[in-house]
Design a protein that fits this description.
It contains 12 helices and 17 strands. By secondary structure, it is of the alpha+beta class. The longest helix has 20 residues. The mean pLDDT is 88.
């Protein structure tokens, strides 16, 4: 059967031609190694800015190529394969399965999860956060008053999210908050210090259970974090909901990069991954380079494979993979409940490391892959 007679191939071709994406070629020094790197990005500006911050930080040059058919993005990648280290496309779950190749990673835009409540005070970091709350005499006030929700949104939430995320524009709309209020499915927990409101947390009540929705700090003043206001939103929500009979709490979405501060914070609370966004980044390595190697070494991430969540962790030396102690340290640092496997890639820029056997203690937890998957020549 020829390609043109193959129904699956025909569907792929139609989809590739039917999707339009905004395209940029972005270049600069990779954030950690300061090696030059160039990438192709196709999608929206919000998520492009996030990926750019991971690769380059704040200094980079970009050229916008305009809006292109999805099919043409692969042609652009092929034309620039010698000069560009990777391509990142924004696609949804269904589409990625039709365009994904063996070397590609499909990384969700967001991963979601829940924690058991009340929190178990089992690590030093949580104990330190609780001490801050007690030391600064932070208190809780519950309200469903519209005027308070209005003040929270405009004086706490918007300034906070704008300050933290700058050009990534991920703020929820005021209309969305009002829809929850009008349906009677949200409550606002205000955090007080000496009768002054310094922060707040909105909880929404859904069929699956309560979910943390919006967190804000008064005037976006991040100095309030020294009082423990960030953790207080989680702590007071946990205690309040546990008293009302709830045993778990959805803690919203997080970026799927395993060094992300929010994701690591939720991990210490006992985060259990439950779902992902329907959209994601299709990451395709194109041409091996020192900058690409450094990007992978410094940005371990969660990706989906055959409907399951996996972690991809790149390491500098093969020796790490033959030492039980080193593997245990990697696993402890990056494993999250809900991951099916932790996949480790020992990277060599020249030549590919052979795939190695995993010590028996980790045979069901870890797989070690060849560096060729990330730094080998791109599939044509």
């Amino acid at each position: 059967m020829s390609k043109s007679q193959n129904p699956s191939w025909s569907i792929r071709k139609k989809i590739r031609r039917s999707i339009k994406l905004r395209v940029w070629i972005i270049s600069g020094k990779e954030l950690y190694s300061e090696e030059h790197i160039t990438i192709i990005y196709a999608g929206g500006e919000q998520h492009k800015n996030y990926i750019v911050s991971l690769v380059f930080g704040e200094q980079y040059d970009e050229v916008e190529l305009g809006i292109k058919w999805l099919y043409n993005n692969f042609r652009i990648a092929k034309q620039n394969i010698k000069d560009c280290s990777m391509m990142v496309l924004e696609v949804n779950e269904r589409l990625h399965s039709l365009v994904k190749r063996k070397k590609d990673f499909y990384i969700p835009l967001w991963v979601r999860g829940e924690v058991d409540i009340p929190f178990t005070v089992s690590n030093k970091s949580i104990k330190d956060d609780l001490r801050k709350i007690r030391k600064n005499n932070l208190e809780l006030e519950i309200t469903t008053e519209k005027s308070q929700l209005h003040k929270f949104y405009h004086d706490m939430y918007l300034p906070y999210v704008t300050h933290r995320h700058a050009n990534r524009n991920i703020a929820a709309s005021y209309d969305e908050l009002m829809r929850y209020w009008e349906s009677g499915t949200c409550e606002l927990l205000l955090i007080k210090k000496e009768n002054e409101h310094i922060g707040g947390q909105v909880i929404v009540f859904e069929e699956k259970g309560p979910r943390l929705f919006l967190l804000g700090i008064q005037d976006g003043n991040l100095s309030y974090r020294k009082y423990g206001v960030g953790f207080a939103g989680y702590h007071f929500s946990s205690s309040y909901l546990a008293k009302h009979g709830y045993r778990s709490l959805h803690v919203g979405g997080s970026r799927p990069f395993l060094k992300d501060g929010v994701l690591q914070f939720k991990k210490k609370l006992g985060l259990r991954l439950t779902s992902t966004s329907e959209e994601g980044f299709l990451l395709r390595p194109l041409s091996p380079s020192p900058g690409l190697k450094s990007f992978f070494l410094n940005n371990p991430f969660i990706y989906t494979h055959r409907g399951r969540l996996h972690a991809a962790i790149s390491v500098e030396e093969d020796g790490v993979c033959s030492c039980d102690e080193s593997l245990a340290s990697l696993y402890k640092s990056f494993y999250l409940k809900g991951l099916s496997k932790v996949n480790i890639y020992p990277l060599k820029i020249n030549g590919s490391s052979p795939k190695k056997d995993v010590p028996p203690a980790f045979s069901n937890k870890i797989t070690i892959h060849s560096a060729h998957h990330i730094l080998g020549p791109a599939l044509r």
